[in-house]
């Protein structure tokens, strides 16, 4: 594995550790949304764009696939994230291919500029 790949893996492990420690317990009573709500709360509305990107980017090129796999091992978080990502109001304008390609271009630009 390249150094960059190892670095991504390590950073993703840290991120999952923080989510496990800080967020997982807060979702214990998610039913299916924060605080036992049946409808999305402000928490889901604010976090949904990040969930979309975290999961989409974890398909390999931008983030390691282990990131999504590790998130899915967190029982409260994965149940909650799945419920959020199933809402049409979250996904109706989501253009995954476009977001991924734009993000790849931005990352490549930043790498070029950093040289």
Description of the structure:
- With 115 residues, the protein is mostly helical.
- Helices cover 69% and strands 0% of the residues.
- The protein is built from six helices and no strands.
- The longest helix is centred in the first third of the chain and has 21 residues.
- The relative contact order is 0.14.
Number of helices: 6
Helix proportion range: 55-70%
What number is the mean pLDDT? 93
Estimated share of beta-strand residues: under 5%
**How many β-strand runs?**
0
Largest sheet: none
Shape call? globular
What is the straight-line distance between the termini?
A: 21 Å
Low-confidence stretches: none
| Classification by helices and strands | mainly alpha
What Rg, in angstroms, do the CA atoms define? 15 Å
Query: What is the H/E string?
Result: HHHHHH
Which terms would index this structure?
69% helix, 115 residues, 0% strand, globular, single chain, mainly alpha
Strand and helix layout:
Layout: H1 3-23, H2 42-57, H3 65-72, H4 75-85, H5 88-91, H6 96-114
């Amino acid at each position: 594995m390249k150094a960059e790949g190892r670095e991504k893996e390590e950073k993703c492990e840290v991120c999952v550790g923080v989510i496990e420690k800080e967020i997982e317990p807060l979702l214990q009573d998610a039913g299916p949304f924060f605080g036992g709500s049946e409808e999305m709360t402000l928490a889901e509305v604010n976090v949904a764009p990040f969930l979309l990107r975290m999961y989409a980017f974890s398909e390999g090129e931008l983030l390691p696939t282990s990131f999504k796999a590790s998130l899915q091992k967190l029982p409260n978080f994965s149940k909650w994230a799945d419920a959020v990502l199933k809402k049409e109001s979250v996904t109706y304008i989501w253009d995954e291919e476009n977001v991924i390609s734009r993000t790849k271009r931005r990352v490549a630009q930043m790498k070029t500029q950093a040289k």
